[in-house]
Amino acid sequence: MKFVLVVGARPNFMKIAPILDGFRARAGGSSDFVVTLVHTGQHYDHAMSDAFFADLSIREPDINLGVGSGSHAEQTARVMIAFEKVCLSERPDWVVVVGDVNSTLACSITARKLGIHVAHVEAGLRSRDMSMPEEINRLCTDAVADLLFTTDEIASENLRREGIAEENIAFVGNTMIDSLLRHHRRARDLPLPDGLRDRDYAVVTLHRPSNVDSVETLSPLFEAIRNIAERIPVVFPIHPRTRRNLETFGLVQGFNADSGIRFLAPLGYLRFIGLVSRSKFVLTDSGGIQEEATVLGVPCLTMRDNTERPITCSLGTNILVGTHPECIRRTAFSMLSGDRRPATIPPKWDGKAGERIVEALLYRCAAQSYYAAAV
């Protein structure tokens, strides 16, 4: 059996690494299956991509499509054109996609139109916000996938309500948490930036177009961050898009620590996890950080009105604070006064999701081979 595993953007790397490890553990010199790793190159920052591969001990991709950036339509189309050639040359039995980026959607559709089975890791997540490109990618990928791996039972129930057959849904846990648990200790041992002390700083990430692409939304958000920085040091590993817009809109005259905000270049996986794990709290509009903060036990204030990961709010450390500056400030100041709610780690977020995924894939392949032989 031949499997093609697809990564496209940096968040995908943490999700695919445990699956590669699971296949490696099951190989044992066996020639029963072949695994090909394809990197679409959707993220054009190759230096950062290389850092993530090194941090996560992921082998070099077998195939790199190098599609680069562009509009959603351009990027999706380029991935489809390039990935079709991979499918025709490799002739895989299964294509495994992760997450919700443009590469996830493009490779799923391409494979299914060629009659290739598709497995979607992190299926069933829903924000119910169709203005988010990721929500469209999730819905379309889940609609064509043959096997849907979910991180929690909320996601599984979403799929059932959308008409997905029970036998095609597998609640396996969270491969991003597999990576976190494997590398957390090494990440915590890395030194903090000069002048920072454990639990005496906050971390900010901000990158969603809906938050940073207009001065009307970015300005009040940044003002709230400035206000928080008056009470506690704020470390801001800044996304290139956000940095460009802060300069374009005249919201910063220079990137320095004068305002209490420590701007950093984008960080590799280990350095970022180490930074978050020792922080007082996190302010973010990211999806994956909501999950990582929950397992690390770090309060997470999500600057969005919705989340596709509601279990991080019901069981974890995540609080939706929206984008109104006063709500952001009030919640952050409450954290500074020691207000923390009890939190637990969701079921099956135990570091074994990758193993479960590989076991389910190999079981499905064995069943298909049995029925094909019987016919």
List keywords for this structure.
375 residues; alpha/beta; 7-stranded parallel sheet; 15 helices; 13 strands; 47% helix; 14% strand
Report on this structure:
This protein is of the alpha/beta class. The protein contains 15 helices and 13 strands. The chain has helices at 10-27, 46-55, 72-90, 102-113, 133-144, 153-161, 175-188, 209-212, 215-229, 240-248, 269-277, 288-296, 311-314, 325-336, 353-374; strands spanning 2-7, 34-39, 63-64, 94-98, 117-121, 147-150, 169-171, 202-204, 234-237, 261-264, 281-284, 300-302, 318-320.
Unreliable parts: none
How many strand segments? Answer: 13
What do the pLDDT scores average to? 92
SSE ordering? EHEHEHEHEHEHEHEHHEHEHEHEHEHH
What's the story with the biggest beta sheet? Answer: 7 strands, parallel
Query: Roughly how many Å is the radius of gyration?
Result: 21 Å
What topology, given as strand order, has the largest sheet?
A: 3-2-1-4-5-6-7
Helix content percent band: 40-55%
Gap from first CA to last CA = 19 Å
Query: Helix- and strand-based class?
Result: alpha/beta
Could you give a short description of this structure?
The chain has 375 residues and is an alpha/beta fold.
